[in-house]
Design brief:
single chain; 109 residues; mainly alpha; 4 helices; 2 strands
């Protein structure tokens, strides 16, 4: 576990013993259920086209970034971040850039 995932194994523990991990699938289910509630409540509000999808991308990106902190994975790169965290940050940057661009166009019109 230490070699593959960077999780310290206490001295005297048999390597065949399964170490406890966070139930990230339950955390993810709860967080995305919360995202669904938010999106469902805001679905009928008057907003520009694509706004609700952009909000979903933000919520999903933040959720994945946070979940990846707790997961025992061996695909860490770039200062301890996982590939999924890198993609989450990229999605957030793209959504932010699109929102900023659209807002500037709406203000200029």
């Amino acid at each position: 576990m230490q070699h593959l995932f960077g999780i310290p194994v206490p001295a005297g523990i048999d390597p065949a013993v399964v170490l406890p991990v966070h139930p990230t699938q339950l955390y993810e289910t709860g967080l995305m259920l919360g995202a669904f509630v938010i999106l469902w409540a805001w679905r009928r509000r008057a907003r520009p086209i694509g706004w609700l999808f952009g909000l979903y991308l933000v919520l999903a990106g933040v959720e994945r970034f946070l979940i990846e902190i707790l997961r025992a994975k061996d695909d860490r790169f770039l200062g301890g971040f996982t590939l999924a965290q890198g993609i989450s940050v990229l999605i957030l940057l793209i959504v932010g850039a699109v929102a900023w661009s659209r807002r500037r166009r709406l203000q200029a019109a």
